[in-house]
Amino acid sequence: MAITLGVVADDFTGATDVASMLVRGGLGAVQLIGVPAQAAAAAAVGADAVVVALKSRTTPAAAAVAESLAAWRWLKAAGARRCYFKYCSTFDSTPAGNIGPVTEALMRELGCDFTIATPAFPENGRTVFRGHLFVGDQLLSDSGMRDHPLTPMRDSNLVRVLQAQCSEATRVGLLRYDTVARGAEAVRQRIAALRAEGTRIAVADALHDADLRTLAEGCAELPLLTAGSGLALGLPEVYERLGLVRRRADAAALETMSGPAVVLAGSCSVATHGQVAHWRAAGRPARALDVRALLQGGAAAAAEEAAALAWALEVLGRAGVPLLYSTAPPAELAAVQAAHGAQAAGERVERALAALARGLAAEGVRRWVVAGGETSGAVVQALSVGALRIGPSICPGVPWTQAAGSNETGPRPLWLALKSGNFGAPDFFAAALAMT
Ligand code: ADP
User: Fold this and answer.
1) At what angle are helices 330-340 and 342-362 packed, to 10 degrees?
2) Are residues 237 and 267 in the same domain?
C-alpha cells in the first residue's frame, strides 16, 4: 500500500467533503473513521488519498494535537508523502484552538518551517481577501457563525485569529491576493520571501477556484498544507504533474449499489425539513419518531422503538423505502429541549436511530441515506463502519460511499449517503437513491 496524500480532518462530514473533492479530481479516496486500528489498513489499499476523520474541532487543544499526530503517524507509516490538515471553511475554532496548535504540532512532526492556511471555498461562498474571511457577501463575523453554539467566530481577520491560537514563535503572515493573481511562480517567490522574514504560516487569499489552483501549484512542494476542502480541488492535477499520482477516470466507481434501502433523518436543519416535506409530499412512506415517548424512557421508549422498526420492516416487505425521521419544527424542538436539555434529548434521539439502524441492518438493509452530521456518526458507529470508499457525488460535499460488511451487517458491502444537515436540494433523498 502506498498512498500519496494523507489528510487529517477535524470532523466527520468535513472529511467526506474533502475526500469527495479529491475523487472529483481523479484520485481514489478512502475515509477512515477515527485514528485507524491496524485492521482498517486493508480498506486503504489502493487508495491515492486517505482521509482520517477525527472529532477534534472543539475538544481540548492537547487532545486534538495528540489525535492529529496519531492520525498523521499512521498515514505516514502507510506511505503518505504529503499531509493535508482539513478544517471547516468557516475556520470553526475556539480562541484556544484547535487549528493553530494542530498546525504547529504537524509542522514540528513533519520538520517543516512553513505552511499556508486557507479555508476558502468559493463554490460555497467562502472567500478570503487580505486575510479576511467572507461568507457570501458578509464578513465571517457578521454571518450566522457569530452565534455558533460551540465556535462563535467574531473576528474575520484570520491572521489575527490564527496568531492568537499559535505560540509567539510561530509568526502568522499573509499571502496576499495580488501575489496569487500573478500565478504559481509569484506564489513560490513570495513564500521564499515570507520564509526568509521568519513567517511560519501564511493565511492565503483566494477568491476564485482559479486562485485555489494557483495556490495548489505554488505550494505543491510543501509537505504540509492546511485548508478547508477548497484547496483540494487543485491538488490531483498538480500531484500528477509532479509524478506523485496518476489520475483515474474511474476514481468514483463503486460496486453496483443494490438491495433494500432506508432513509434516516435525525437533523432539524432547514434543508432537512425541506427534504422530509418533499418526500412526504411525493406520497412516499414516512414515519415521525415520537420523541416524547423516547424521552419518557422505560416501556414507552421501548414500545416506540419497536413500533418504528416494525413499521419500517413492513414498508421494506413490500419493496418500499421507509423514511424514519425525528426532524421537528423549531417550536417543538425548543419545547423538548427545554424539558429535557438539548444534549440529553439529542443523545436519546441518536440512540434510537442507532438502535433502529442495527435492527434494519439485521434485516438486510444495504443502502442508507442519513441526514445529520451527529446522526451520521451515530449510524456509522452502530453499523461498525470503520472505513468508507468515496464514490460519486450526489451534491457538492455529499458523495455515495461504500463500506465493507461487518459482523453487524453481514459480508456484503453497504452503501451510505451521509449528509450534514444543511446540505442538499429538497429532492436529495430520492435523488440519492435514484443514482443507485
Ligand atoms: P445537523 O447536521 O443538522 O446539525 P445533527 O445530526 O448533527 O444534524 O444534529 C441534530 C441533533 O439534534 C442530534 O443530536 C439529534 O439527535 C437531535 N435531534 C433530532 N431530532 C430531535 C428532536 N425531535 N428533539 C430533540 N433533539 C433532536
Assistant:
1) 110
2) no
